[in-house]
Amino acid sequence: MTGWPHCFPPSPGTKPLVILLHGLTGCETSMNMVRAALHHHGLGHPVLRLNLRGAGPSRATCRGDYHAGCSRDLADALTSLVETAPELTANGIFISAVSLGANVMIKFLAERGSEFPIRAAASISAPIDLAASSRSVMRRRNALYHRWLLIRMKADCGGSDLKPAERTAMQQARTVFEFDDRFLAPRHGFDGAMHYYTECAAGRFLDAVRVPTLVVHAQNDPWIPAGPYLAHDWSRNSCLTPLLPRTGGHVGFHDAGHDVSWHDRCAADFFAAH
Fold it and tell me: What is the distance between the alpha carbons of residues 239 and 235, in angstroms, rounded to a whole number?
């Protein structure tokens, strides 16, 4: 074992490491992370479930918090991994990320993906248009989810390094947009939510990705609109393989007769081809 936590150790062989990234308010114990880890490890891969800054159990050991554009954190984590645990990355790396984590991954791949031994990646239900996703989450039909999500977001960012004004802004936010506009965006150097959304949305980075990447999104996702996916010209970048089924929900894709989610099986098949 290495010093890296949350790692399913290598099996004998030469298969690449699979790194998993969670979504908004998730962490390494999220059910979709655990199930994906079990599936890829069962196929012979070592697997690392990577927490974004301050997520879940990492809250106690982190200063700051993650956001949709924190690609530098991912680059720093992979740099450390390659340097301190070369045996894990000797056969290359696959990355599979869901939801907000997938947005971070796409941005990272566009900016610095070529600097690491990444063979392929899979994006599941990424909010490639953050402004549209924010509006969708706040729709009346999503009221219960919106309320639950906002509570979880506040809990994730409730670290001890908050300034009094930041803590007040966070606690007083009544919507996801207010949370992003009054707390998260200024905390990370953005001029409000719209500036944060524009600068960090994965959609603006898709054409710059140079790593073979499977992009999975369901057209009936209740929280992340399919419009930006359907409007994008995927022919502009041959490194991207879009997979846009009519159904599947948000990081769901369950089907009868299978214990493993369809998107995890698709990711595994895509990785096997690379």
Answer: 9
Residue whose entry in the numeric block shows the structure tokens 């524009």 = 198
Please tell me the distance from the alpha carbon of residue 51 to that of residue 72, in angstroms, as a whole number. 14
List, in order, residues 6 or more apart from 239 with CB less than 8 Å away: 209, 210, 211, 212, 213
Q: Using one digit for the tens of pLDDT, what is the confidence trace for 62-97?
A: 888 999 999 999 999 999 999 999 999 999 999 999
Q: Report d(CA 68, CA 130) in Å as an integer.
A: 8
Tokens of 36: 């994906």
Query: Across the chain, where does the E strand assignment appear?
Result: 7-8, 17-21, 47-50, 93-98, 118-124, 213-216, 240-243
What domains sit in the chain, N to C, each tagged with a CATH number?
7-129+202-272 (3.40.50.1820), 130-200 (no CATH)
User: What Cα–Cα distance (Å) separates residue 121 from each residue in 9, 21, 126?
Assistant: 20, 11, 13
Specify whether the CB–CB gap between 17 and 49 falls below 8 A.
no
CB 240 within 8 A of CB 15: no
Q: What predicted TM-score, i.e. pTM, was given to this entire model?
A: 0.94
Q: 38 near 67, Cβ under 8 Å? A: no
